[in-house]
Design goal:
The structure is a homodimer of 195-residue chains. Chain A is mainly α and 195 residues long. Chain A is built from nine helices and no strands. Chain A binds a DNA duplex (30 and 30 nucleotides) through helix 3.
Chain lengths: 195, 195
DNA sequence: CCACAAAATAGAACATGTTTCACTTCTTTC
DNA sequence: GAAAGAAGTGAAACATGTTCTATTTTGTGG
């Protein structure tokens, strides 16, 4: 949610474009700088590393996705259906640009301590959505009822999110295809959200 | 299980030692080569990249761990206890050398298509152990009874493994501490393996 | 408008993963 | 044991992330 000046925006946009076209390794900072019409030093004035640029991109992309998904109440007649909807939308949204998605996963899992907070915020964003889906609320709105924060729902949504993430990483590494990601989440929610 | 010649072994050992001392970035291939008393070209004759060396290390480390855990029947009077034992042993075994563990996670999640098979084999190793734990068998032994391969147990063990992996990545990224990893797995097995 | 501080720039320089090369040392085969 | 090929070696070269520096541009208070 930080305000980015024009240069920072151009840098992130360029990085997204390059990652989308040819993946992580194609995000060469010299190219980013040149394409964004900015000096390399300016890139490093804004971002501490290549990973940070990509994390900023992830933040931007996921905020867009979440905004789209979170606008309306999650459709579905039971928790399981709603959860499927949310993860499906999330997965398909990311898969629309597979190379970008892989690059973002790589940054997410890089273990760089400097980006821990951004990773946590991404995590929180999804948790919010999944919990809203379980409860049948509109993710973008504050919770209607002051439900206890430490309930089973929180645990379940954390588990589902972990399953999704691990499976998504598996997809990014070529372990299996996108359908498997949805199937993994489906099976887990079946067991955890028995209607 | 490939047979590694002396040089390859020295290379991996050196990489492990460096990763253990100071983490991923400290595994400088020039240093690895020098310490292993080998030319840089020889390193690249054996391994296609730095990631591959670390994946070989992961294979070696996880085989050691699995051998140790899988020797005896998993202790515990119900599935939940046995699963806790397995993941606890796995987690603690890896956490004995945190920097190494972080470096290995990073390689695991790197998304490099060249190491997909190794990642899959690591995945399979753990699946075997978790399923044995659920069933109360000795992981090292072939299954006593010809249980159907596609059962609920397989799904549950896959979910638990995903939860463990995602939480472990979270630990590696500084998102939370090791106790949280075990707690996440615990909560999941509580819900999935209700005694 | 002017001086000056902050920001941007071009470009060199450095660190480290990866590749290449010319040369030497093994190993194998006869 | 000598020739041929495989493997190893040291060093250079290259690619790209990151840092540094000297210079120029930009924006701001007087």
């Amino acid at each position: 949610m930080d305000v980015m000046d024009d240069r920072a925006k151009r840098i992130v946009e360029t990085a997204v474009a390059l990652a989308e076209r040819d993946g992580y390794q194609a995000v060469r900072l010299r190219d980013v700088a040149a394409t964004a019409q900015v000096a390399l030093g300016t890139v490093y004035k804004r971002f501490a590393s290549k990973e940070e640029i990509l994390i900023a991109a992830l933040e931007q992309e996921s905020e867009k996705l979440v905004a789209k998904i979170g606008k309306k109440p999650v459709p579905g007649s039971d928790a399981q259906e709603r959860v499927r909807f949310v993860f499906s939308a999330l997965t398909k949204g990311l898969l629309r640009r597979p190379n970008l998605a892989k690059a973002l996963v790589r940054s997410l899992a890089s273990g760089d301590p400097n980006i821990t907070e951004r990773v946590a915020s991404f995590h929180g964003l999804i948790t919010t959505m999944v919990m809203a889906a379980i409860r049948g609320e509109t993710p973008g709105e504050p919770a209607a009822s002051p439900v206890g924060v430490d309930g089973r729902e929180q645990t379940v949504s954390s588990i589902l999110q972990n399953v999704w993430f691990a499976s998504f990483v598996g997809w990014a590494g070529g372990l299996h295809d996108a359908a498997q990601v949805l199937e993994d989440v489906d099976k887990a929610s079946e067991l955890l959200l028995a209607a």
